[in-house]
Write a structure and sequence with these properties.
The chain has 502 residues and is of the alpha/beta class. It has two domains: 269 residues, Glycogen Phosphorylase B (Rossmann fold, 3-Layer(aba) Sandwich); 209 residues, Glycogen Phosphorylase B (Rossmann fold). It has 18 helices and 19 strands. A nine-stranded mixed beta sheet has the order 7-6-3-8-9-10-13-12-11, with helices on both faces. It has a six-stranded parallel beta sheet with strand order 16-15-14-17-18-19, with helices on both faces. A two-stranded antiparallel ribbon has the order 1-2. Helix 4 packs across helix 5, helix 10 packs across helix 13 and helix 11 crosses helix 16. The longest helix has 21 residues. The two termini are 25 Å apart.
Length: 502
């Protein structure tokens, strides 16, 4: 589509994963719709605007290209935007995804250097996969498009495009924390990663601290770099060119989560939980299985609180939901075993004939059922050791339309920068302090609970996911969301000579 003889600007989203997951069941391939903040945020933005989403479809087994086309074609039409797959081989998944992305960058950027594995083959695979993504982006995008790259898996994409003399406008958003120089400099390929990030026109971070850490790392390699501007978005000048960097915290679809609590499933879940636990207060934890989430420390703090405070016994129940993740990785299997053993120990120590202090679910729940858990919980404990944002904290608040409930939040979660001081901030490493905070939340007067929750909900509602998208586009592309007009579904193969998806 053209306006005044010029091509319309399309939005091209690039992430490690497409907003779906392919699963093989016998001889058949099935797909599951994606969930989570990124899909919720960008699905409505891309829909019916002629945009594209480029990513790996999540398959670990080889898949025939015609089968893939047969699956993605109808999904693209239903979604209102074109899904373009990037095919990864087994060695790529092992070394790029499980290796460099999740065994090197993930622990390093979460301040857990002792968990890092730095293998040259990881780095080589990471560059190879970023190069493969760049080829797909170059093939399916055009000069007027705006390329929005997401997260630590694809930090090299803009540089790979430039190597191909492809000067698409590229913006990057990092969903996880960015470390301080003393941590980042431990990465063997630190200069190469920083050079790659500097190739983007815009680099976005969750918090001001993350953006400042990025600026400090830039100065480590380019001491002459200068920061100009104040506020969330600044311009960083280097001899090699300028970078715009911003602190733009991601959020949730507030109205969507609030409406979920009115669904039949959510109401039935609330009723079931209340019938199961009576007048006892419900403490809730919801986490993906990961060593950054602080689950063992939270359980230990709950155990300590039961030891210290008799008034909590038989008056509170802790419901901990852990969503399976990376089950084939030994460290995650060990973490699950540790959690299971701790749950058994706590219940063995404190359970009575009428009370089981801890209920543990190792599974995922549909969004409407999870909203019921949020709504039923009197207290939510969101206590990661380190987190880019943590949307569970915001989802919990959105589900409390009655303005009642207490949020306990780690000071090391990105969300703390927005939700303090209405949340009860804690240091998740301080077991005694976290135990005291559990008691404080349990004893908090109704008026204070409601006052705090009302202000928390106001903050999240005002800066919801659509606020985030609009502000990111304004800062990175100089355009508002309305400046990406309706458009036809992008063609699968833009050039007649191209016959393959990758």
């Amino acid at each position: 589509m053209k306006a005044n003889g010029k091509e319309e600007t399309r939005l091209v989203v690039v992430s490690n994963r497409l907003p779906l997951a392919l699963r093989r069941e016998g001889e058949e391939w099935r797909f599951e719709a994606g969930s989570g903040g990124l899909v919720t945020a960008l699905g409505p933005v891309l829909k019916d605007r002629g945009g594209l989403w480029i990513g790996w479809p999540g398959n670990r087994d080889p898949i025939d290209r015609e089968v893939l086309r047969h699956i993605l074609g109808p999904v693209s039409k239903a979604s209102g935007y074109r899904l373009i797959p990037v095919i990864l081989e087994k060695e790529h998944i092992e070394n790029y995804y499980e290796g460099f992305a999740n065994a090197s960058i993930w622990p390093l950027f979460h301040d857990l250097q002792m968990a890092c594995l730095f293998q040259p083959r990881f780095w080589e695979a990471y560059r190879d996969v970023n190069s493969r993504f760049a080829r797909i982006v170059r093939r399916h995008s055009r000069g007027s498009d705006f390329i929005w790259v997401h997260d630590y898996h694809l930090m090299h994409l803009a540089l790979e495009l430039k190597k191909r003399n492809n000067n698409r406008r590229c913006a990057f958003f990092l969903h996880i924390p960015f470390p301080s120089p003393d941590i980042f400099l431990k990465l063997p390929w630190r200069y190469e990663v920083m050079e790659a990030l500097a190739a983007f026109d815009f680099v976005g971070f969750q918090t001001l601290r993350d953006r400042q850490n990025f600026q400090a790392c830039l100065r480590s390699f380019w001491p002459s770099s200068r920061v100009r501007g104040r506020g969330p978005v600044v311009r960083i000048s280097r001899n090699e060119g300028n970078i715009i960097a911003g602190a733009l915290p991601i959020s949730i679809d507030f109205t969507h989560f609030m409406n979920l609590t009115r669904s039949k499933t959510a109401r039935e879940t609330v009723k079931a939980l209340r019938e199961a636990h009576g007048t006892r207060k419900i403490l809730l934890g919801v986490d993906r299985l990961d060593y950054t989430k602080g689950i063992p420390q939270r359980l230990e703090a709950y155990e300590r609180a039961l030891e210290l405070y008799d008034e909590l016994r038989e008056k509170v129940v802790f419901v901990q939901i852990v969503v399976p993740s990376r089950e084939g990785v030994d460290a995650y299997s060990r973490l699950r075993d540790e959690i299971t053993q701790t749950v058994s120990r706590i219940n063995g120590r404190f359970a009575t004939t009428n009370w089981t202090p801890l209920t543990f679910f190792f599974r995922s729940f549909p969004a409407d059922e999870l909203a019921g858990f949020y709504r039923a919980a009197d207290i939510a404990a969101v206590t990661p050791l380190r987190d880019g944002m943590n949307l569970v904290a915001k989802e919990y608040c959105a589900c409390h339309a009655d303005n009642d409930g207490v949020l306990i939040l780690s000071e090391f979660a990105g969300a703390a920068g927005q939700l303090a001081p209405e949340a009860l901030l804690v240091n998740p490493h301080d077991i005694e302090g976290l135990a005291r905070t559990l008691l404080k939340a349990f004893e908090m007067a109704p008026q204070e609970r409601q006052s705090r929750m009302r202000r928390l909900r106001r903050i999240i509602r005002r800066r919801d996911i659509f606020w985030w998208v609009d502000n990111f586009l304004r800062a990175a592309a100089g355009k508002a969301l309305r400046d990406f007009p309706p458009g036809d579904l992008a063609p699968l193969v833009p050039q007649p000579l191209e016959r393959h998806l990758s």
